[in-house]
Amino acid sequence: MPRNSDWLTVETPSYAVPGGNLIVKVELKNPEPGLRLGVDLHHLNNNKESPGCLSVSRSVEITDNKNSYEFYIPVPAKRELAFIFPVVILSRDGSWSGRVKSAESEPVPIQLSEKITDRIILKQMNTHNTGEKDFH
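-> structure tokens emitted (136 positions)
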């Protein structure tokens, strides 16, 4: 696994529930006011293949004196879901094509709600950069 991204930390629960929301807490190490921060949720099937984006958050503008942002992203109730992982996007306009930096977190397993006995606790996840573009 590549080394952790140096521009952010990401916390998520240790599992996700179909039909619920995945909480993604993003801590920016050097926030740049005026840029936008968003999170896309991708998934893996049982073969560890990613068919792509599953759901997206609304991007938020990064503001002065704020490093920490929380996103609540819907986890669709799909039969083929085995794992999900957040992709964090820092961009000029909130879009993937306007990104300055992006990073993905390690996968989180899907658990059916009837098997849940623990309360949700966020834990820091490993991240790695997925695509940076020159910022002009």
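The mean pLDDT is 85.
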